[in-house]
Amino acid sequence: MAMRIPLIAGNWKMNTTLAEASVLVTEMREGLERIEGVEKVLCPPFLSLSLVRELLQGLSIKVGAQNMHFEEKGAYTGEISPLMLKELCDFVILGHSERREHFKETDQMVNEKVKAALAAGLTPILCVGERLEEREAGRAEEVVVRQGRAALQGIESPQRMVIAYEPVWAIGTGRAETGEGANATIGIIRDMMARLYSEGIAQGIRILYGGSVTAANVAEFIRQPEIDGALVGGASLKAEEFLSIVAQTVAIKK
Ligand code: PEP
């Protein structure tokens, strides 16, 4: 079986001024650096990317953005391109449910973004997940597979990608999915990858769980064989809690 290096990514969302970002990184960077055997990614707002990158210079902690446009440049006022991001970070979160919901991102737009990110040498963290009404209608599986397939249209080499299963009803609500439930859905996403590509690619790709992950519940997810780490929102804004999430991940996965 392929060895997948666990990954914990912190999505700071629209939080932290430059001063606050500086404090947060300074509080966590030494502790994070000491933890080996897990990939650590911080995803601050665009305006803090440069500063965070500078504060992490020479360390193993990686930087990611939370979104991007798919065009390289042009008349897209207010947007940020893959080429601009490539100068500042390695990862980019794409298709987050908050982008789909508040900014009307469609599966097709997410697909364009994933293709553009890969072409630019960025690692996309592709988010998929069902809304509460979809889950209650028994359509969770169908929704994540539809979103995953749509996002991967036309992509021949998805190996570098990371996928995050984030049930929308669990994001920022304090109501996380169960470890077993998340493991089952992530297994379905992995099967989808095997059908679209190959068993080898499916076994090599990292799939994270996201949705109200905290230091108190992370172990339940990380213990599951299909779950390779977590995309953490709220809890990534607290240095001690984020460090604990990363440390527990290594302790369980090693
Ligand atoms: C997220 O922003 O992707 C997320 C999972 O948020 P939270 O951990 O706050 O639920």
What does this structure look like?
- This protein has 254 residues and is of the alpha/beta class.
- The protein has one domain: TIM Barrel (Alpha-Beta Barrel).
- 45% of the residues lie in helices and 15% in strands.
- It starts with 6 loop residues before the first strand and ends with a helix.
- The model has no long low-confidence stretch (mean pLDDT 97).
- The chain binds phosphoenolpyruvate.
Question: What secondary-structure arrangement, pairings included, does this model have?
Answer:
Layout: E1 7-11, H1 18-34, E2 39-43, H2 46-55, E3 62-65, H3 82-86, E4 91-94, H4 97-102, H5 107-120, E5 123-128, H6 132-136, H7 140-152, E6 162-165, H8 179-196, H9 199-204, E7 206-210, H10 218-222, E8 229-232, H11 239-253
Parallel strand pairs: 1-2, 1-8, 2-3, 3-4, 4-5, 5-6, 6-7, 7-8
This protein binds phosphoenolpyruvate (PEP).
Phosphoenolpyruvate is lined by residues 11, 13, 166, 171-172, 210-213, 231-235.
